[in-house]
Design a protein that fits this description.
It is built from five helices and no strands. It is mostly helical. It has one domain. It is elongated. 24% of the residues are buried. The model has no long low-confidence stretch (mean pLDDT 90).
Length: 161
């Protein structure tokens, strides 16, 4: 096997695994941060979500870097193809939603949940239920965008470029 072929195979492996590991926790957040949970369940869910947050950070960066390396080393055509440019744009949009919207709302909810004055609370007040609802909507958005991203990367539609 040629060296170039071996490098490409390893890069593809790294790219696919890092994408799955990077985006995977987003799907679990749907279950973790759902409405209708007790305050204690939400506290535990936020603890787990904060641990899972490391996977998208590391996996997402590794997926982008390995994907760009694959493009530059491989024979994939023009950069302006829908599947390449669209995938990068979707990744950026997902990051903007997560960093700019989801994380601040999760911090707001966590501040209330872990505040000593709310330690014995049995239910979320209306404001916190609204925050949780917003978190759920943003997680659903990133999940849908993540699925579209996977479709683009697997199907590689040849529109554009």
């Amino acid at each position: 096997m040629c060296l170039h072929c071996a490098i490409m195979k390893w890069l593809v492996l790294i790219h696919v695994l890092s994408a799955i590991i990077g985006i995977g926790p987003t799907f679990f957040e749907q279950v973790l941060l759902r409405r209708g949970q007790s305050v204690e369940e939400l506290r535990n869910a936020l603890k787990l979500a904060s641990l899972l947050a490391w996977f998208p950070k590391v996996g997402g960066i590794l997926a982008v870097v390995s994907g760009l390396l694959l493009f530059w080393i491989g024979q994939y055509g023009k950069f302006t193809q829908l599947w390449i440019l669209g995938s990068l744009i979707l990744f950026v949009v997902i990051e903007i939603i997560v960093i700019g919207y989801t994380v601040p709302h999760m911090k707001k909810l966590a501040a209330w949940l872990f505040h000593p004055a709310n330690e014995k609370a049995r239910a979320l007040p209306e404001e916190q239920r609204h925050v949780l609802k917003r978190i759920g909507a943003s997680i659903q958005s990133t999940t849908i965008l993540g699925m579209i991203l996977f479709v683009l990367m697997i199907m590689k539609p040849a529109i554009g470029g």
